[in-house]
C-alpha cells in the first residue's frame, strides 16, 4: 500500500487503464473532471501506448493535480489496473475504461447510496453506444442485492461499481494478469460475493463505447480457453466462500 505523505486523502480513487485510446481519451477524462462529486483522484495508467495517449494524460495532470499519471511498459489491462490499485489512496475505488465516459453525477450518486444504505459496494446501470447511438443497456431494479441469492445482479465489469477500498485490500484481491479477455470478471465476482452489503442504482450512469480494436472484438482460441479458466476459478472461489461462511456460522 502506498504511503500517503502529507497530501489529503481523497474519498474516491478512480483508476483508468490506458492503451492506444487517444481518440476517446479526452472525452473520458473530461467526464471525470466534470463530476459533481469533487473529492477524487484519478489514477491514469499508461500501459505503454504507442499513440498520443501518454502525452494527453500528462497534459491533464499538469492542469489538474487530481489526475495522477503512471507510465509503464505494456503489460496488459490487468497489470495496469493492479498498478493503479497499488498507489490508490481513496476510501473508495472505482474503475473507468479510457474509451468510455461517465455521467456528471455518477460518483455523487454512488457515494450517497453507499452512505445511505451502509453498503460497501454500489453498482449502477449502463449503456453500450456505437457512434453515440445506444445499442444495448442494463436496467435492474434499484435496491439492496446479494449475488449469492440473485445472480441477475452479477455484472462482470468493474466499470460501473464503487467498492470500499478495505474490501479489496483486506481480501488481497488483484486482477489476474494472465487473462486477456473478461479479465475483470473474476475480480468483480469476488468483490460482489464478499461485499457485506451491496446496492444497485437504477440509473444509466456509465457509457461503454463499441471499440473495434478492443480485445473483446479480437478473440483468439487462447482467449476463449482463458475465459473458461476464469469461470472455473469463479466456481472454486464461490465454493470456498460458501464453505467458510458455513464454518463461521454465518450462512450464505
From TrEMBL:
TM stretches of this protein: none
Domain called Glycosyltransferase 2-like: residue spans: 13-132
Pfam families the UniProt entry points to: Glycos_transf_2
InterPro entries assigned: Glyco_trans_2-like, Nucleotide-diphossugar_trans
GO molecular function: hexosyltransferase activity
Keywords: Glycosyltransferase, Transferase
Protein name according to UniProt: Glycosyltransferase
Naturally occurring in which organism (per UniProt): Candidatus Avitreponema avistercoris
Amino acid at each position: 500500500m502506498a504511503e500517503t505523505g502529507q497530501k489529503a486523502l481523497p474519498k474516491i480513487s478512480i483508476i483508468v487503464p490506458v492503451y492506444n485510446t487517444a481518440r476517446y481519451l479526452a472525452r473520458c477524462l473530461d467526464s471525470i473532471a466534470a463530476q459533481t462529486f469533487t473529492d477524487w483522484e484519478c489514477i491514469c495508467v499508461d500501459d505503454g501506448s504507442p499513440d498520443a495517449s501518454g502525452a494527453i494524460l500528462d497534459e491533464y495532470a499538469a492542469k489538474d493535480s487530481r489526475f495522477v499519471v503512471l507510465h509503464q511498459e505494456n503489460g496488459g489491462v490487468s497489470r495496469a489496473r493492479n498498478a493503479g490499485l497499488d498507489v490508490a489512496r481513496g476510501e473508495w475505488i472505482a474503475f473507468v475504461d479510457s474509451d468510455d465516459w461517465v455521467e456528471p453525477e455518477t460518483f455523487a450518486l454512488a457515494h450517497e447510496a453507499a452512505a445511505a444504505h451502509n453498503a460497501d459496494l454500489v453498482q449502477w446501470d449502463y449503456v453500450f453506444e456505437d457512434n453515440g447511438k445506444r445499442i444495448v443497456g442494463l436496467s435492474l431494479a434499484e435496491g439492496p442485492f446479494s449475488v449469492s441469492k440473485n445472480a441477475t445482479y452479477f455484472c462482470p465489469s468493474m466499470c460501473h461499481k464503487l467498492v470500499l477500498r478495505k474490501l479489496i485490500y483486506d481480501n488481497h484481491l488483484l486482477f489476474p494478469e494472465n487473462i486477456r479477455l473478461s479479465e475483470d470478471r473474476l475480480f468483480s465476482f469476488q468483490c460482489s460475493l464478499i461485499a457485506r452489503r451491496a446496492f444497485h442504482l437504477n440509473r444509466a450512469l456509465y457509457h461503454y463505447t463499441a471499440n473495434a480494436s478492443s480485445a473483446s472484438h479480437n478473440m483468439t482460441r487462447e482467449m476463449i480457453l482463458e475465459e473458461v479458466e476464469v469461470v472455473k476459478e469463479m466456481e472454486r472461489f464461490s465454493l470456498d466462500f460458501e464453505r467458510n461462511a458455513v464454518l463461521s456460522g454465518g450462512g450464505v
